[in-house]
Write a structure and sequence with these properties.
The structure is a single chain. This protein is α+β, with helices and mostly antiparallel strands. The chain has a domain of about 140 residues: Immunoglobulin-like. Helices cover about 25% and strands about 30% of the residues. It contains five helices and eight strands, in the order αβββαβββββααα. It has an eight-stranded antiparallel sheet. Strand 5 and strand 6 form a beta hairpin. The C terminus is likely disordered.
Length: about 200
């Protein structure tokens, strides 16, 4: 009789264990719930559509223009002259200087992929967000249309930056990287190219 009771208790325990196992498998099989995407794209153009950028920060205005030039090169296999078009960014008022293309490309990427982290709706008190005197103003020309963005203060808790778009009434927040790529002055963008100088001893030989 005692053995039957032990066997019965063991069977009940086994059934309970199987039930827990099935419940766990069912729970793991469920697709995880994801929060809805609340980001909003603030641009309707791609980075490659941008042909001019102007930004003002700390009292300095930097103007960049995309220029296309016809370049003649020699074909590596035939030696024949080949012409092709190349585009590069230049400072509008200093086109003869070489600009770091990587830094400017980071700006076009930031603008062409600009999205909000939050839409705060209409807000009449712009001073509390630093938008009465923006810390950065950016104007991009894309597809022959000018787009202007005003960056305000950085939220000390979230690290997000307050932003307004010309023509829109909403106040937005964006990631700090959207502002940080415009930290460069005109001189910062110019590549310093140093020529190799031979030591005086070797020149004298």
């Amino acid at each position: 009789m005692k053995q039957k009771r032990l066997l019965l208790a063991g069977m009940i325990g086994l059934v309970a264990l199987l039930g827990v196992g099935l419940a766990l498998v069912s729970l793991l099989a469920r697709e995880p719930e994801t929060e809805p995407d609340t980001t909003i794209a603030l641009t309707d153009y791609a980075p490659a559509d941008i042909t001019a950028i102007q930004y003002t920060r700390e009292g300095e205005t930097v103007e960049l223009a995309l220029v296309t030039e016809t370049v003649e090169t020699a074909d590596a296999s035939t030696g024949e002259a080949v012409t092709e078009e190349e585009s590069r960014w230049v400072l509008a008022d200093r086109p003869e200087e070489t600009v770091d293309q990587t830094l400017v490309n980071s700006m076009t990427t930031a603008l062409g992929t600009l999205t909000t982290t939050r839409d705060l709706g209409e807000n009449g008190s712009l001073a509390q967000f630093g938008l009465d005197e923006p810390s950065l103003t950016v104007q991009a020309t894309a597809n022959s249309t000018e787009h202007c963005y005003y960056f305000g203060d950085t939220n000390p808790v979230t690290g997000e930056v307050y932003l307004m778009v010309e023509g829109a009434t909403s106040l937005y927040t964006v990631r700090y990287t959207s502002l940080n790529v415009f930290q460069y002055s005109a001189d910062d963008l110019v590549q310093v190219i140093t020529a190799d100088v031979q030591p005086e001893s070797s020149l004298a030989e």
